[in-house]
Amino acid sequence: MSQLAPDGEVPVYDLVGVGFGPSNLALAIALTEHNAAATQPVTAQFLERQPRFGWHRGMLLEDATMQVSFLKDLVTMRNPTSSFSFLNFLHGNGRLVDFINHKNLFPLRVEFHQYFEWSAAMVDDLVSYGSEVVAVSPVTRAGAVEYFDVTASLDGGEQATYRARNLVLATGLRPSLPAGVTSGERVWHNSEMLHRLAAFGETDPTRFVVVGAGQSAAEVTALLHERFPRSQVCSVFGRYGYSPADDSPFANRIFDPAAVDDFYDAPDEVKRRLVDYHANTNYSVVDTDLIEELYRRVYREKVLGVQRLRMFNISRVAELVDTGEHVRVTVESLVGNGSTVLEADVVVYATGYRPADPLSLLGPTAALCQFDEQRRPKVGRDYRVLGAPQLRAGVFLQGGTEHSHGITSSLLSNTAVRAGQILGSVVATRQIATVPRQDRVASVLGVR
């Protein structure tokens, strides 16, 4: 599997990124800005299986807003003067004054996606779309892994191989469904929402069932109730009611760059407590405005005597049977109040995501990486996977590091800063200077 690497035989990139969502997009931008002033530019190539840039397209609902400030864009927290900022995007599109007059920190999700697309277009030369990574092979020299050969399957059926000193894995999240549930024509994960709805046209289904209690579940419930005025929408969740997200100033500090340092240095028990304490900033919570809007609709229908929006709280889906014409959903009360059988045209599971296993791409080489007792990768503060001495090529993770770096691992809040830290580490390890590595990283990042 491994092979010798005669110097100069194959072009070597300093960095190959697998996946091109917001995280690696932020890295491509940081790299571009670094290279503009660098005497020795960083060479890079990013590989993305989608035919073009896309971020949660199935949930780009018209009225949905971001849950983070626009200042937590792809660059501002790392470089406030960057030309890749959201504000510069607004200026270039003639909307800056209108956005300021809007007096809102939280743009529409659709608009932020437009910003991502605008940014991606400016670093398009670094990305190969329609390229799905199918293998990563170690390239050895004197018994040590010096490079990785990254093989991608292209849209036309051919393959291409890229040799890298460093891999940056940003393989994203995968839709999560309960055990025994599979996606189908009538059973969806909310990530497919807009693509699936397009098939209905002007037809109004009789009944939707939405499973889940988080932001996505509430958004889907509100959308279906509004878009299909003759349909019944049933929301099923185990809680007593939707829980509001804690976005208060002190709680929001858990998303600060400095909080990553605190979390990383904390003992495991403290890490667990911090996640438990601040879970209500991110997990299974809903914006207060949306909670109030859904309650207003439920109460309005109670007054009018027409109940289209039904809440099955403290409940779970006990059985799901596709009859061919409908899905028979058995909703069971968790407090012993019996069961209700619903005949639904569509069941939407808004049950979250799970991180992809980023190291699965490495194959047998993953055995050179270090893992903790729960088989989670051990990761340095610079997001580099720790490994055996013979693993000299770098493997960096963008995501999948919640256990080591905290809640922001899969969120946008720290994306810009993390990109700068990864790039700083890549540049520092390439430098020949004899100063200590820690000082070199600090120099690259512009901090002391």
Automatic annotation (TrEMBL):
Q: Does the keyword Disulfide bond apply?
A: no
The enzyme's main class, written as a single word, is oxidoreductase
GO molecular-function term, one example from the UniProt record: L-lysine 6-monooxygenase (NADPH) activity
Pathway info: Siderophore biosynthesis
- What Enzyme Commission number does this protein have? 1.14.13.59
InterPro entries per the UniProt record, alphabetical: FAD/NAD-bd_sf, Lys/Orn_oxygenase
Q: Which transformation does this protein catalyse, written as a reaction? A: L-lysine + NADPH + O2 = N(6)-hydroxy-L-lysine + NADP(+) + H2O
- Known cofactor(s): FAD
Q: Which UniProt keywords apply?
A: FAD, Flavoprotein, Monooxygenase, NADP, Oxidoreductase
**Is the keyword Oxidoreductase in the record?**
yes
The entry assigns this protein to a family as follows:
Belongs to the lysine N(6)-hydroxylase/L-ornithine N(5)-oxygenase family.
What is the name attached to this protein's record?
Answer: L-lysine N6-monooxygenase MbtG
